[in-house]
Specification:
Strand content: 5-15%
Number of domains: 1
Radius of gyration: 18 Å
Shape: globular
CATH architecture: 3-Layer(aba) Sandwich
CATH superfamily: CofD-like domains
Distance between the termini: 30 Å
Strand order of the largest sheet: 3-2-1-7-8-9-10
CATH class: Alpha Beta
Largest sheet: 7 strands, parallel
Order of helices and strands: HHEHEHHHHHEEEHEHEHHEHEEH
Number of strands: 10
């Protein structure tokens, strides 16, 4: 769909000078691709705690930050694939050292090994792929997600947290890391901040565990919305109700900070009156658990309209 035609359907979003979307992996990538018409006015703040798949193998063998979610977001923003984007997303088959590795992860890791700052490495790849939206890692230091259980045991690693059979008592980052400075600046300037969709505990929460980021969100004048998943999550987060998840968010961003929620029509909610809830059918026609880009961008525009009344 031509950029001008797409953007003309979103008058409230089109007036905004800065929109920040926070999350990781497929969910954040979907939001960024749905709002790609905003160009340089859109920034993704990406979780860097992944330790599974190709990313996990690279981290365990060579250290460094988690590149997988950043790579995923870069390629999802490109709705019409190019040779460059196909190359960046290429995954090696067969057996041996390279089997299962994603070339984009290896390229980003190579830039890191060359002592190029992670954010600068991302910007180099953005130029190669002609991606106009910004992408910022939540931190440029290696970090792992951890969960403290009710028993007092601490489980370390995003994959391990996702595999839990109980809701953790709380989450933390090991080690404690600082936010990427540009992440704080962009949050402070944002007119709209979007949380989700995606894995609640392992994609949405990690960035909020960095005090500088959560404080910047709390103090920001931006409208803050949460986009719910279309289907119930697997893993421990699947047993959290919408109200439970809002409580988890509020432990980091403060009470009454969240302005709006986008969710599906079947969701039962018992939420504070200060939160505007927009219920719409948002499923992609081909993959029902995935948000349709056009429906999602319209829903975001619609809830911004409601919040400005």
């Amino acid at each position: 769909m031509p950029e001008q035609k797409l953007s003309s359907r979103h008058p409230y979003l089109n007036k905004m000078s800065s929109v920040v979307a926070i999350g990781g992996g497929h969910g954040l990538g979907r939001v960024l691709s749905s709002l790609a018409f905003l160009g340089e006015r859109l920034t993704g703040l990406v979780a860097t705690t992944d330790d599974g798949g190709s990313t996990g193998r690279i981290r365990s063998q060579h250290g460094g930050i988690a590149w997988g979610d950043l790579r995923n977001c870069l390629t999802q923003i490109i709705i019409k694939p190019t040779v460059a984007s196909a190359l960046f997303e290429y995954r090696f088959g067969g057996v041996g050292e390279l089997a299962g590795h994603n070339l984009g992860n290896l390229i980003l890791k190579a830039l890191e090994n060359m002592k190029i700052r992670p954010l600068e490495g991302i910007n180099l790849v953005r130029e190669l792929l002609h991606v106009r939206a910004g992408l910022i890692p939540m931190s440029e230091s290696p970090v792992h997600l951890a969960a403290q259980l009710k028993s007092g045991v601490t489980i370390v690693g995003e994959v391990s947290v996702d595999a839990l059979e109980e809701i953790p008592r709380n989450l933390l980052l090991i080690p404690k890391v600082s936010a990427t400075p540009e992440a704080i600046d962009i949050v402070k300037k944002a007119e709209l901040i979007v949380l989700g969709p995606g894995s609640f505990l392992t994609s949405i929460m990690p960035s909020l565990l960095i005090d500088e980021i959560s404080s910047a969100i709390t103090q920001s004048n931006a409208k803050l919305i949460f986009i719910d998943n279309i289907q119930q999550e697997s893993g421990p987060a699947g047993s959290l109700s919408l109200a439970d998840r809002i409580e988890w968010l509020e432990t980091r961003i403060g009470k009454n900070r969240l302005n709006g929620i986008i969710t599906v029509p079947t969701t039962y909610n018992d939420l504070p009156e200060n939160i505007t809830v927009l219920k719409q059918i948002l499923s992609d026609d081909e993959v029902e658990y995935r948000h349709d880009r056009n429906k999602l961008s319209k829903a975001i525009n619609d809830i911004v309209e409601l919040l400005n009344r």
